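= Paired protein data =
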Amino acid sequence: MIPRRVCIMTLGVGTGHLRASEAVQHALYDGADPIEVKVVDALDLARPWFHWLYVDPYWWMLRHAPWLWRKLFEHRQRKLHRATAPDWVFRRGCRGVLRQIKNYAPHLVIVTEIAAAEIAALGRQEGWFNAPILAVQTDFQTEPPWVQPGIDMYCVASDEARGQLIGWGVLPNRVLLSGIPVDPAFSLPFDEAELVQALGLDARRPVVLVMGGGMGPVPLDKVVASLELCGVPMQVLAVAGHDRELRRRLELLRGRIAIDLRLFGWTDNIPELMAAADLLITKPGGLTAAEALAAGLPMILTHPIPGPEERHVRYLEQKGVALHADKLHDLPRLASRLLSSPEELREMRRRAREWSRPDAAHAIAQVALALLEKATYIELLATPPPRSGESAYLM
């Protein structure tokens, strides 16, 4: 049997969309049918001017004018704009992306980012490929530009997102509540004693994991320094990712603050760090929040990106799994409150597991396989019957 080809397309403006794509890719490979999956980051193939016209202004606003990004985001929501940019920006700026998809000739296209959804819908409309499109969302609420005529199915993270899409005209039977796809490792029952020993931690003191996420400026060094005011003898695990300057500033804190500080750069061991932690302090990206929910880890949320992540804060607070530190000086008070209240932490852990969907990637993979089967059936119906002496076969 010839493997069915699946293209997962994203736009890597943050690490979350790539992690979601990889989680779905691994879930598809877990299936029994032969399948070939290719993850494509549109930014890797886009023309240079697409970066400075479409991506760079977004980063500039986040760093220098977050109020402007909030205003643009809210205007897009209020006016129900169905595009983040004119078609010609994607048509000309992402021609290399469309050409690669055409050459790959997928039987299914999965998109995990809003601009990727627009590119895929445009590509199908203009004949670059002829395959169904599955949209996988990584936020707890959605946006109007996700509603594209070429998208066959949606997998969303919450009832709120499902209701929004249906309210904007998507048929209810095309929207599945799946959750955000995360690595199943986040829900594994790690041996706590072994983790503590492997990380060199003291089992008698609470562990706080501090992360900045892959998008938006977060002063992680100031966050860590503020925790000294808690008055709780804690151990802090700080993840700087690829940001070398941030790691340098965190290194300078050692010996200057009365906190047991462990530093990590880019690491694949986030499931282990979350399993070892009692509390997570993070920017509320959709993937990071979903991973914490799967790990049953209470959160303090700080420095949200205006618009989408501010809505994440409200959603997670309403579910009782997180607190919001609106200002940096709120962090010590909230951290001290939670670390001094085992009962509240236990309740937040219970609620996090209640609202988590650690099997989301496999649920999405099942939807993808169903779309592949349907596409195969339609392809067979469209195939002319064999002439005399020839044999029909199922690919």
Observations:
- The radius of gyration is 23 Å.
- The chain has 17 helices and twelve strands.
- The longest helix spans residues 360-382.
- The chain has two domains: 4-182+359-382, 187-355.
